[in-house]
Write a structure and sequence with these properties.
Layout (H helix, E strand, L loop, with lengths): L9 E4 L3 H12 L4 E5 L7 H4 L8 H4 L6 H7 L2 H9 L12 E3 L2 E6 L3 H17 L7 E2 L13 E7 L3 E2 L1 H9 L6 E3 L10 E5 L10 E6 L8 E3 L3 E4 L5 H7 L7 E13 L6 E5 L2 E11 L2 E7 L1 H5 L6 H15 L9 E12 L11 E6 L2 E5 L6 H16 L21 H10 L18 H4 L3 E2 L2
Parallel strand pairs: 1-2, 1-12, 2-8, 4-14, 12-19
Antiparallel strand pairs: 3-7, 4-6, 5-6, 9-10, 10-11, 13-16, 13-17, 14-15, 15-16, 17-20, 18-19
Helix pairs in contact: 1-7, 1-11
Length: 448
């Protein structure tokens, strides 16, 4: 086995939006951090998401009952706008903004939706549940195919971001702190082991990590002062390897639908009876528009193995709620997605982020939603501070190691240089690519 590494404050396992945002936050706080990813940055949950920075609009429409979910997320769109405009660190101005807003449409063919159009949206606005009030869109401004399909359309100040470019923008400043490790036949993801604290000191053993740069390579043992598990669905396996209960996590599978062809760009939720029947977002791919279609449709077919059935039902739902959409010449595909979250005592979806200490120096984290990644990073920094005994020396809100612009100060840079005075073995490991989005790997069928 290779010798132990130079001092490393925090090792992050998982390179989705959660892990990358945590890496940035810890680095700006003056901690030496390394992120390891087994496949591609964003692989799984991040790259499969629709990129909507939710502000609670569709939750508020659930009969104005899900107050905790709305409270946790209501400020996120405006915070993300500051990042996307480069006004707050991390600077995400290089990420591609697909839409400034997300629409809510209440379909013409639903009596319940017509009643909502008259009653619920004004209630939501008056209740102050949302940071930005929903605005009714004048009919001449409705995007296709809503003029022939909707009874009412509202605009929510919820931006939609391209997840591939978001991952690249988060990763670019930290390329020397992000590395791949082996994952494949004959090579375990990673070994999480108990190890005695460096320099003794007694107490329970801390977590250490053994990882390989490529299959067949000897393992390198990393003994960070703290370990953060931010691998989404992979957290269950990592917890089990660490001797902790993997039941802390729950999975909510989805079967997402893709449409491809001469489609108009659309970023909108179809809401009926407080439920999001469809959620549609659009991207450009090979000269065509691809729609990602989620919502209740994706949940209903979560466990289906019959892709033809899923596709037929999806097309029927689109005909029902978007009757003005011309389906001729389109192609369709499906892909399985999994939302990994902290387990709720009643099996429900959690309202906010979940950060939990699972050992003297280990933290497990789930953001629950893409939009909550900034809050997750702040909470992880707080837990890491407590694990390292550094709470008194640094405040998560205003780290002494960061300037007002969010860039590391000379002191932070010097600290990292001292920590890495000896070249670590992982510095020669490869950097992971950005994961491929689902439409690049889909098997397409003609719509008949």
């Amino acid at each position: 086995m290779e010798p132990a590494e130079p001092r490393l404050d925090v090792l992050i396992l998982g390179g989705g939006v959660a892990g990358l945002w945590i890496l940035d936050r810890l680095h700006r706080a003056g901690l030496t951090a390394l992120l390891l990813e087994a496949q591609g940055l964003g692989h799984g949950q991040t790259i499969q998401s629709q990129g909507i920075i939710h502000g609670g609009g569709k939750y508020a429409l659930r009969g104005v009952r899900d107050f905790s979910a709305v409270a946790a997320i209501r400020e996120m769109p405006e915070r993300w706008r500051r990042h996307l405009q480069g006004r707050e660190a991390p600077d995400l101005s290089a990420a591609k903004l697909l839409s400034q807003d997300c629409l809510l449409w209440l379909p013409r063919r639903s009596l319940v939706a017509r009643v909502q159009a008259l009653g619920i949206m004004p209630v939501v606005a008056r209740a102050g549940l949302l940071a930005t009030r929903p605005r009714r869109v004048p009919r001449p401004q409705w995007p296709a195919p809503l003029p022939g399909s909707a009874a009412a359309v509202y605009r929510m100040a919820e931006p939609v971001v391209d997840t591939s470019s978001l991952l690249a923008a988060l990763a670019e400043p930290h390329r020397d702190r992000i590395r791949s490790y082996a994952c494949g036949p004959g090579a375990a993801w990673v070994d999480v082991v108990r190890a005695e604290r460096t320099g003794g000191g007694g107490g329970p053993p801390w977590l250490a990590v053994r990882a390989r740069s490529h299959p067949g390579a000897p393992p390198t043992e990393l003994r960070p002062r703290a370990v953060v598990l931010a691998a989404g669905a992979g957290n269950a396996d990592l917890l089990a390897r660490a001797g902790e209960d993997p039941g802390r996590m729950q999975r909510r599978p989805l079967c997402m639908v893709l449409l491809r062809g001469a489609l108009p760009p659309l970023y909108a939720h179809c809401v009926v009876g407080g439920k999001t029947r469809l959620t549609v977002t659009a991207v450009d791919y090979q000269g065509e528009t691809v729609w990602q279609v989620g919502g209740e449709l994706a949940e209903r077919h979560a466990y289906s193995q019959d892709h033809s059935l899923v596709q037929r039902d999806a097309l029927a739902e689109l005909r029902r709620w978007l009757p003005a959409l011309d389906q001729r010449g389109l192609r369709i595909a499906t892909y399985a997605a999994t939302r990994a979250e902290a387990r709720d005592a009643r099996g429900r979806r959690p309202s906010g982020v979940h950060v939990e200490r699972v050992g003297p120096n280990a933290v497990v984290a789930w953001p629950t939603k893409l939009a909550l990644a900034p809050l997750l990073a702040e909470e992880v920094l707080g837990e890491v501070d407590r694990a390292l005994g550094a709470t008194a020396a640094r405040s998560p809100a205003t780290p002494l190691a960061s300037s007002a612009s969010g860039r590391p100060t000379a002191a932070a840079t010097a600290l990292e240089a001292m920590a890495c005075a000896t070249t670590p073995a992982w510095s020669a490991w490869p950097s992971p690519p950005i994961a491929r989005p689902p439409w690049e790997e889909a098997t397409w069928s003609d719509v008949r």
